[in-house]
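Hey all, quick one. A colleague (J.T.) asked me to put the nicotinamide-adenine-dinucleotide job into the tracker so the inputs and the structure tokens live in one place instead of scattered across chat threads. No bug as far as I know, just bookkeeping. Sequence used:
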Amino acid sequence: MSFTPSRILVTGGAGFIGSNYLLHCVPSYPAAQFVNLDLLTYAGNLANLRQIESLENYHFERGDVADPVFIRSLFERWQFDTVVHFAAESHVDRSILDPGEFVRTNVTGTLTLLQAAKEAWKDRFDECRFHHISTDEVFGSLGLEGEFREDTAYAPRSPYAASKAAADHLVRSFGTTYGFPYVMTNTSNNYGPFQFPEKLIPLVIRNASERKEIPVYGKGENIRDWLYVTDHCEALDLVLRQAATEDTFLIGGSQEVTNLDLVHLLLDVYDRQTSNEPGRSRELIRFVGDRPGHDFRYALDSSPIQNRLGWTPKHDLTSGLEATVAWYLDNQEWMDAIFGKDYLAYYEVQYGNR
Ligand code: NAD
Ligand code: TYD
């Protein structure tokens, strides 16, 4: 079974993963039209898309996924057959401070898109597809053993994860109730070019470059699985085209590491690439108060997407961190432009010192 998207609405395409996805897909599929719908919140940045902004099959619309009148008019104007839905509030720490915005964008926004797509596609569900992008955080927190699978029960523990879980449930409910054509993917921690520097990896690089303290929550023992963003985008492209309707795939990097080990690895790469003396940046690490309800570990069983769709990530953590540090060092201007004042000392305000 394969699907050929032709008029594609990409929501949140000015954010981290969405922009990498567009940079990958727009030049690869010149016969398809891509419309990037983004509200340009603090996390959205059109400068991410310079390489494709003048291509004829790329278009930008500024607007809110939770605005039903605007979304309906967009479907009428563009006659989409495909939605790839990235737009979300995506930072756990922010969700602890302000959960309301997460419910509005992630839950109401997803429902608004689902309703508009269902109405627009009512006579042709078999020609259309809604790809919902989600996270491993919906499954909750693991101990030292085990991995999440597609059929693991949901147990979200942060307001961010709860809002993404609600959105996932709505998407599946449209499938079972109306026969709505969706596919879903849940991914682990992505990293790479164009990530907003309040997430761990770009934050560490940025602070190292400014010789600022590097905040590690708690004792740095929490474990994450890391996936290089372009590997994720290749997997998303495969799923959209090859998966069966109502399929869910988990997409992980199989690269688990504690936060402290990750920060050490990253700073060592940083020191090598900047010709610092070895260990110089590790001096910047500062243990700060822990994130409330901090999930201990995430890990995904990605064997179904590897076995059924033939996907394998091209980067392991070592090559991915090398590529990431090199990219941020080459794009200092991008970092300077995007590093908003609202971020500064964010973790200090929130969690204090240990
Ligand atoms: P991001 O925060 O970098 O980007 C989100 C984008 O959505 C921004 O461009 C923002 O302007 C836009 N947006 C926010 N609210 C909007 C609204 N109401 N209407 C229209 N646009 C709006 O996020 P990301 O890291 O690129 O994540 C993309 C998706 O992938 C999200 O759904 C997230 O939950 C999921 N995800 C991310 C990761 C990760 O490691 N980054 C991991 C798992 C899943
Ligand atoms: P983050 O990048 O926010 O992703 P997520 O919470 O979705 O996993 O954080 C990754 C891990 O790093 C998480 O365990 C929290 C931790 N962390 C720090 O220790 N210090 C920081 O400054 C940040 C932002 C995160």
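Adding what we noticed when we looked at it: The pocket of nicotinamide-adenine-dinucleotide (ligand 1) is lined by residues 11-12, 14-18, 38-41, 43-44, 64-66, 86-88, 90, 105, 109, 133, 135, 164, 187, 189-190, 196 (CB under 6 Å). DSSP finds twelve helices and twelve strands in the chain.
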